[in-house]
Protein backbone atom coordinates (compact mmCIF):
# COMPACT_ATOMS: atom_id res chain seq x y z
CA UNK A 1 0.00 0.00 0.00
CA UNK A 2 1.25 3.47 -0.87
CA UNK A 3 1.90 5.76 2.11
CA UNK A 4 -0.78 8.33 2.91
CA UNK A 5 0.51 11.79 2.11
CA UNK A 6 -0.50 14.82 4.14
CA UNK A 7 -2.38 17.29 1.96
CA UNK A 8 -4.66 18.93 4.50
CA UNK A 9 -2.12 20.50 6.87
CA UNK A 10 1.12 22.20 5.91
CA UNK A 11 4.36 20.89 7.51
CA UNK A 12 5.20 24.27 9.05
CA UNK A 13 1.77 24.48 10.71
CA UNK A 14 2.08 20.89 11.95
CA UNK A 15 5.38 21.86 13.58
CA UNK A 16 3.92 25.02 15.14
CA UNK A 17 0.99 23.09 16.61
CA UNK A 18 3.28 20.33 17.87
CA UNK A 19 5.71 22.83 19.39
CA UNK A 20 2.82 24.62 21.13
CA UNK A 21 1.51 21.39 22.66
CA UNK A 22 -1.77 23.03 23.60
CA UNK A 23 -4.42 25.03 21.77
CA UNK A 24 -6.57 27.40 23.81
CA UNK A 25 -10.17 27.23 22.56
CA UNK A 26 -11.81 30.64 22.80
CA UNK A 27 -15.33 32.03 22.56
CA UNK A 28 -15.03 35.81 22.23
CA UNK A 29 -18.17 37.93 22.51
CA UNK A 30 -16.59 41.37 22.17
CA UNK A 31 -13.76 42.43 19.87
CA UNK A 32 -12.21 44.52 22.66
CA UNK A 33 -11.35 41.28 24.45
CA UNK A 34 -9.39 39.76 21.56
CA UNK A 35 -6.03 41.37 22.29
CA UNK A 36 -6.12 41.13 26.11
CA UNK A 37 -6.95 37.42 26.08
CA UNK A 38 -4.31 36.68 23.44
CA UNK A 39 -1.69 38.59 25.44
CA UNK A 40 -2.74 36.83 28.66
CA UNK A 41 -2.27 33.46 26.98
CA UNK A 42 1.12 34.43 25.58
CA UNK A 43 2.21 35.63 29.00
CA UNK A 44 1.46 32.14 30.28
CA UNK A 45 3.30 30.39 27.46
CA UNK A 46 0.35 29.41 25.26
CA UNK A 47 0.94 30.49 21.67
CA UNK A 48 -1.79 28.60 19.79
CA UNK A 49 -5.44 29.67 19.70
CA UNK A 50 -8.61 28.25 18.23
CA UNK A 51 -11.31 30.88 17.82
CA UNK A 52 -14.69 29.20 17.60
CA UNK A 53 -17.18 30.54 15.08
CA UNK A 54 -19.96 30.74 17.64
CA UNK A 55 -20.12 34.52 17.89
CA UNK A 56 -20.46 37.14 15.14
CA UNK A 57 -17.26 38.94 16.20
CA UNK A 58 -14.95 35.95 15.70
CA UNK A 59 -13.74 37.14 12.28
CA UNK A 60 -12.94 40.65 13.47
CA UNK A 61 -11.31 39.34 16.65
CA UNK A 62 -9.10 37.04 14.60
CA UNK A 63 -8.00 39.86 12.32
CA UNK A 64 -7.04 41.98 15.32
CA UNK A 65 -4.91 39.18 16.77
CA UNK A 66 -3.25 38.37 13.44
CA UNK A 67 -2.39 42.01 12.81
CA UNK A 68 -0.93 42.72 16.24
CA UNK A 69 0.43 39.37 17.43
CA UNK A 70 1.92 37.44 14.51
CA UNK A 71 3.65 35.08 16.94
CA UNK A 72 0.24 33.56 17.72
CA UNK A 73 -0.64 30.42 15.75
CA UNK A 74 -4.28 31.24 15.04
CA UNK A 75 -6.98 28.83 13.94
CA UNK A 76 -10.74 28.69 13.65
CA UNK A 77 -12.97 26.05 15.15
CA UNK A 78 -16.46 24.79 14.40
CA UNK A 79 -15.77 25.32 10.70
CA UNK A 80 -18.78 23.69 9.07
CA UNK A 81 -19.17 25.24 5.61
CA UNK A 82 -17.16 25.96 2.49
CA UNK A 83 -17.89 29.67 2.93
CA UNK A 84 -16.38 29.61 6.43
CA UNK A 85 -13.27 27.93 5.04
CA UNK A 86 -12.81 30.68 2.45
CA UNK A 87 -13.40 33.39 5.06
CA UNK A 88 -10.83 31.80 7.39
CA UNK A 89 -8.26 31.75 4.61
CA UNK A 90 -9.05 35.35 3.72
CA UNK A 91 -8.48 36.47 7.32
CA UNK A 92 -5.10 34.74 7.24
CA UNK A 93 -5.78 31.91 9.68
CA UNK A 94 -2.98 29.39 10.16
CA UNK A 95 -5.37 26.45 10.42
CA UNK A 96 -8.97 25.40 10.95
CA UNK A 97 -10.67 22.45 12.60
CA UNK A 98 -14.13 20.93 12.50
CA UNK A 99 -16.11 18.70 14.84
CA UNK A 100 -16.85 16.28 11.97
CA UNK A 101 -15.40 15.00 8.73
CA UNK A 102 -17.03 16.71 5.73
CA UNK A 103 -15.23 15.92 2.44
CA UNK A 104 -16.51 19.13 0.78
CA UNK A 105 -15.12 21.28 3.59
CA UNK A 106 -11.78 19.45 3.54
CA UNK A 107 -11.54 19.86 -0.24
CA UNK A 108 -12.31 23.58 0.05
CA UNK A 109 -9.54 23.99 2.62
CA UNK A 110 -7.08 22.25 0.32
CA UNK A 111 -8.17 24.40 -2.61
CA UNK A 112 -7.40 27.62 -0.76
CA UNK A 113 -4.30 26.36 1.03
CA UNK A 114 -5.77 26.41 4.54
CA UNK A 115 -4.35 23.79 6.91
CA UNK A 116 -7.28 21.73 8.16
CA UNK A 117 -7.89 19.02 10.76
CA UNK A 118 -11.29 17.29 10.48
CA UNK A 119 -12.99 15.76 13.49
CA UNK A 120 -13.02 11.99 13.99
CA UNK A 121 -14.39 9.63 16.60
CA UNK A 122 -14.84 6.34 14.68
CA UNK A 123 -12.74 4.23 12.30
CA UNK A 124 -15.08 5.27 9.48
CA UNK A 125 -14.33 8.92 10.24
CA UNK A 126 -10.60 8.20 10.11
CA UNK A 127 -10.88 6.44 6.76
CA UNK A 128 -12.92 9.30 5.31
CA UNK A 129 -10.22 11.71 6.46
CA UNK A 130 -7.45 9.51 5.05
CA UNK A 131 -9.24 9.44 1.70
CA UNK A 132 -8.91 13.24 1.66
CA UNK A 133 -5.20 13.11 2.51
CA UNK A 134 -5.50 14.10 6.16
CA UNK A 135 -2.94 12.92 8.70
CA UNK A 136 -3.52 15.36 11.57
CA UNK A 137 -7.01 14.85 12.96
CA UNK A 138 -9.17 16.37 15.67
CA UNK A 139 -10.40 13.75 18.16
CA UNK A 140 -13.80 14.99 19.29
CA UNK A 141 -15.52 14.69 21.70
CA UNK A 142 -12.57 13.11 23.45
CA UNK A 143 -13.59 12.41 27.04
CA UNK A 144 -17.19 11.30 26.48
CA UNK A 145 -16.06 9.02 23.64
CA UNK A 146 -13.73 7.04 25.88
CA UNK A 147 -10.67 9.23 26.19
CA UNK A 148 -7.22 7.85 25.40
CA UNK A 149 -8.33 4.25 25.80
CA UNK A 150 -10.83 4.61 22.97
CA UNK A 151 -8.40 6.53 20.77
CA UNK A 152 -5.54 4.07 21.30
CA UNK A 153 -7.70 1.07 20.44
CA UNK A 154 -9.39 2.78 17.50
CA UNK A 155 -6.10 3.88 15.93
CA UNK A 156 -4.30 0.54 16.36
CA UNK A 157 -5.03 -0.68 12.79
CA UNK A 158 -3.70 2.61 11.41
CA UNK A 159 -0.55 2.99 13.54
CA UNK A 160 1.77 2.43 10.58
CA UNK A 161 0.40 5.62 9.01
CA UNK A 162 1.79 7.80 11.81
CA UNK A 163 -1.45 9.70 12.38
CA UNK A 164 -1.48 12.54 14.90
CA UNK A 165 -4.44 13.80 16.90
CA UNK A 166 -5.65 16.97 18.58
CA UNK A 167 -8.10 15.87 21.31
CA UNK A 168 -10.82 18.30 22.36
CA UNK A 169 -13.93 17.96 24.46
CA UNK A 170 -13.83 17.51 28.21
CA UNK A 171 -10.10 18.07 28.68
CA UNK A 172 -8.82 19.97 31.70
CA UNK A 173 -5.70 20.32 33.80
CA UNK A 174 -6.59 17.14 35.75
CA UNK A 175 -6.79 14.78 32.78
CA UNK A 176 -4.49 16.56 30.30
CA UNK A 177 -1.47 14.42 31.20
CA UNK A 178 -3.27 11.26 30.04
CA UNK A 179 -3.28 12.70 26.54
CA UNK A 180 0.03 14.58 26.46
CA UNK A 181 1.96 11.43 27.37
CA UNK A 182 0.70 9.57 24.30
CA UNK A 183 2.78 9.61 21.09
CA UNK A 184 -0.51 9.86 19.19
CA UNK A 185 -1.08 13.41 20.43
CA UNK A 186 0.46 16.43 18.73
CA UNK A 187 -1.36 19.00 20.90
CA UNK A 188 -4.34 19.07 23.21
CA UNK A 189 -7.16 21.59 22.99
CA UNK A 190 -9.36 23.00 25.68
CA UNK A 191 -11.61 25.84 26.71
CA UNK A 192 -10.81 25.59 30.43
CA UNK A 193 -7.69 27.74 30.01
CA UNK A 194 -9.69 30.80 28.98
CA UNK A 195 -13.33 30.04 29.64
CA UNK A 196 -15.93 32.28 28.06
CA UNK A 197 -16.87 33.55 31.52
CA UNK A 198 -13.22 34.43 32.24
CA UNK A 199 -13.00 36.44 29.03
CA UNK A 200 -16.30 38.22 29.66
CA UNK A 201 -15.15 39.02 33.20
CA UNK A 202 -11.75 40.19 31.96
CA UNK A 203 -9.99 37.77 34.31
CA UNK A 204 -6.67 38.04 32.50
CA UNK A 205 -4.58 37.02 35.51
CA UNK A 206 -6.58 33.80 35.89
CA UNK A 207 -6.11 33.02 32.20
CA UNK A 208 -2.37 33.62 32.40
CA UNK A 209 -2.12 31.38 35.46
CA UNK A 210 -4.05 28.59 33.72
CA UNK A 211 -1.81 28.97 30.68
CA UNK A 212 1.31 28.75 32.83
CA UNK A 213 0.01 25.62 34.56
CA UNK A 214 -0.65 23.68 31.36
CA UNK A 215 2.52 24.94 29.70
CA UNK A 216 4.60 23.74 32.63
CA UNK A 217 2.87 20.35 32.60
CA UNK A 218 3.65 19.93 28.90
CA UNK A 219 7.29 20.89 29.43
CA UNK A 220 7.66 18.44 32.31
CA UNK A 221 6.13 15.52 30.38
CA UNK A 222 8.14 16.21 27.25
CA UNK A 223 11.32 16.58 29.26
CA UNK A 224 10.73 13.20 30.93
CA UNK A 225 10.20 11.60 27.51
CA UNK A 226 13.67 12.74 26.43
CA UNK A 227 15.40 11.39 29.56
UniProtKB/TrEMBL annotation:
PROSITE patterns: ALDOLASE_KDPG_KHG_1 (PS00159). It comes from the Bacteria. Keywords: Carbohydrate metabolism, Lyase. Gene3D superfamilies: Aldolase class I. CDD domains: KDPG_aldolase. Pathway: Carbohydrate acid metabolism; 2-dehydro-3-deoxy-D-gluconate degradation; D-glyceraldehyde 3-phosphate and pyruvate from 2-dehydro-3-deoxy-D-gluconate: step 2/2. The keyword Plastid does not apply. GO terms for molecular function: 2-dehydro-3-deoxy-phosphogluconate aldolase activity. It catalyses: 2-dehydro-3-deoxy-6-phospho-D-gluconate = D-glyceraldehyde 3-phosphate + pyruvate. The keyword Lyase applies. It is an enzyme of class 4 (lyase). Pfam families: Aldolase. Its EC number is 4.1.2.14. Belongs to the KHG/KDPG aldolase family. Homotrimer. This is 2-dehydro-3-deoxy-phosphogluconate aldolase.
Amino acid sequence: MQPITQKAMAPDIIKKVDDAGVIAVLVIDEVKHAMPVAKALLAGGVSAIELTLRTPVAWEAAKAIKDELPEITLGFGTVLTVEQVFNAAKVGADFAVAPGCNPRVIAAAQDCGLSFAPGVVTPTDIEMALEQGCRVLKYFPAETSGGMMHLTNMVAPYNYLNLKFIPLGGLNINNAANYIKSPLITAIGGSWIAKQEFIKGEQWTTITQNAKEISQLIRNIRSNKKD
